[in-house]
Amino acid sequence: MSSAAEQEAVAEKRTAASAVVSGARRGTPGVPVWPGASTPLGARFRVGPEGVAGTNFALWAAGAEAVELCLFDDQGRETRARLTELTHEIWHGFVPGVMPGQRYGYRVHGRWDPWTGGRWNPAKLLLDPYARAVDGEFTLPPEVYGHVRDWPEQHVADTVRDERDSAPFVPKGVVVHDDDDWADDRRPKTPWADSVIYELHVRGFTMRHPEIPEELRGTYAGLAHPAAIEHLVKLGVTAVELLPVHQFAHEDHLLRRGLKNHWGYNSVGYFAPHAAYAASGTRGQQVGEFKRMVRALHAAGIEVILDVVYNHTAEAGELGPTLSLKGIDNRGYYRLQSDARRYADYTGCGNTLHVVQPQVLRLITDSLRYWVTEMGVDGFRFDLAAALARSMHDVDMLSPFLAVIAQDPVLRRVKLIAEPWDVGSGGYQVGAFPPLWTEWNDRYRNAVRDFWRHALPDVREMGYRLSGSSDLYAWGGRRPYASVNFVTAHDGFTLRDLVSYEHKHNEANGEGNRDGTNDNRAWNCGAEGESGDERVRSLRRRQLRNLLTTLLLSTGVPMLVAGDEMGRTQRGNNNAYCQDNEISWVDWGLLEDPGWKNLFDLTARLIALRHDHPVLRRRAFFSGRPHSVDGLRDLAWFTPRGTEMTERDWYAPAATLGMYLSGRDIPGRDERGAPIIDDSFLAVLHAGDRPTPFVLPGPPWAERYELVLDTSTEDQSRPPLTSHPSAVPLTVPARSVLLLRVLT
């Protein structure tokens, strides 16, 4: 504005426009809707024509016959306005006077024809797929279903349209205005090879922390609290991977049993931070709170990775609720079978988003870019990523989704992690994703679990997994950090339960212990569940040290699960997705137990060791070939006899493996172009139940060795740092890892 008079004139126009909308809410007919713009999609507050403030609404609904915008006041009274402008299948309009905090939804008109996939029902208020905040919670009464849920003939119930109004029973989108430019934020930009990921749940991580104020527990603000961040910094992790924080809904079968979806893999709003995790309010305040959390983590040098669920939505199959996409354009958003009443289900959750469709692809990529550019996140872990990589039917690594990500100037620069499988035919794709992607490596998980319970037929698989899984990832320019190594994840046993239970104990889920995997690859150390036998307890703690040490010494990107570093238990529940209680929440009191505090100290020490030694976080695969005249190689494998492994040794049953890592032959250069030189190490892993002699390899490998870590000891606060000559046997304790530094 060039003058105070002009500013005053604009203010009067804004006041007048607000009065029009307020009058409409009181019953005055008609809400002014100006043409507006078809882009960007969603509800965007801005200054419109002649300086009048308002909100532009834009909704893609290709097959719809009409779209009504529904505005709600604080008492829940609804005012409707038709969006009459249609541009490239997008219905749009600018409503003057609609300000940030306004709650809204859509009613979409069209033909009810489930037999051809048409499920339009204007009696159902629909959440804007681009809503940036959501106010309210989905409770799923019968009114929110597009069909008559309690129809006597259930096999045709989905074909009978329900005419009851769902508006009183569903959350509303919220108009959000945030001009934050992130000028004061500094992204850590941790290289993949240097990353250590810590998977956590915003609510579960903070709910029981005694130093976080009670009103902040379970929230974004709680995770941003100095007490929470202090733990992460002391541990040394470089990134948190948050279980889903997109707005999600609880499944009906859980609500009927008095439970809720704790994990959040049931998304309904891909732009909105889940409102229940906000301490500051749900009328848009959750957006700012999430950003402040990201800033606080960045300031501590910690990246934020989101676990995202773009493969399916909370609307389930034909008998599921009508919350958003199903009522906007069912055929356009979801994969349908040849019988269009039915949904193609590659996810096990009732539906699959049709990512081949340009508008669905746009929804996903717009969402991803929004979380990077406007919410500050540093990467994504894609749940059931193989479902996103399907073309018409089969998984296709040249699929539209992967092609768009590869060329996107924003998304190709952030961390991209695939869960490389789905439940459909041909869905297991570990090792198949293209460069730019890293993958959850379940073959690493299985091999490490089996080795330490002494269940591997030989050590071939273990050799591959310890050294970066070159058999899976050494193609197409991929690097060792393409493998996200993990022993546990949110889905399955905790690390403590892995050594305490051999069978799942999911009775609290109310599904007759039928849910959750039976393939746990677990060993309970001689007693099922908690034990008072100190020998069993001591062995379990040793096994935990072995598992954590193996993980953090392996080449690749290690991922820890919140609480594993201090012995968190879920009491044998390996599918705690519906346990929003002490079963899932981190028990911070464990750190007061010296035994579990020792485990934390060991984990922190291992992460620091990894940080200090580039030989433990290589950026290129080992060659296994001599790089100098003395015949020393970058990687060598040894038997307990002190001899290099032969082909026969790899195929023979064994419980012991020696891995030599040379610090002289690390590929690449530092930031100034100098060669990278590090210490060399020998790691000895012994899964046998009795001590065994191990001859330390002599020249050219080493003259002497310094023992820097021994997992057989309880107190890890003081490293052993004892010296041992080469070419003589060293006794390796039963079930232990020894790490020795080469002395020249």
Helix count, DSSP H or I runs of 4 or more residues: 17
Biggest sheet details: 8 strands, parallel, barrel
Overall pLDDT score: 93
How much strand content do the residues show?
15-25%
Indicate the percent of residues in helices. Answer: 10-25%
The neighbouring-strand order within the major sheet is: 12-13-16-17-18-19-20-21
Enumerate the spans where pLDDT stays under 50 for 5 or more consecutive residues.
1-7, 9-29
Distance between the termini: 74 Å
**What's the count of strands?**
31
Structure report:
The chain has 744 residues and is α/β, with parallel strands linked by helices. The strands form eight sheets. Strands 12-13-16-17-18-19-20-21 form an eight-stranded parallel β-barrel. A six-stranded antiparallel beta sheet has the order 22-23-26-31-28-29, with helices on one face. A hairpin with a 4-residue loop joins strand 8 (112-113) and strand 9 (118-119). Helix 11 packs across helix 12 (460-466) and helix 15 (534-553) packs parallel to helix 16 (594-612).
Task: Spell out the key features of this protein.
single chain; 744 residues; alpha/beta; eight-stranded parallel barrel; 23% helix; disordered N terminus
Topology readout:
Layout: H1 4-25, E1 42-47, E2 53-60, E3 66-72, E4 78-82, E5 85-87, E6 90-96, E7 103-109, E8 112-113, E9 118-119, E10 134-135, E11 172-174, E12 197-200, H2 202-206, H3 220-224, H4 226-235, E13 239-242, E14 246-248, H5 252-256, E15 267-273, H6 285-299, E16 303-308, H7 325-333, H8 358-373, E17 379-382, H9 385-388, H10 400-407, E18 415-418, E19 437-441, H11 442-452, H12 460-466, H13 470-473, E20 483-485, H14 495-498, H15 534-553, E21 557-561, H16 594-612, E22 635-638, H17 647-651, E23 656-661, E24 666-669, E25 675-676, E26 681-686, E27 692-695, E28 704-710, E29 722-725, E30 729-732, E31 736-743
Parallel strand pairs: 12-13, 12-21, 13-16, 16-17, 17-18, 18-19, 19-20, 20-21
Antiparallel strand pairs: 1-2, 2-6, 3-4, 3-7, 5-6, 7-11, 8-9, 10-11, 14-15, 22-23, 23-26, 24-25, 26-31, 27-30, 28-29, 28-31
Helix pairs in contact: 11-12, 15-16
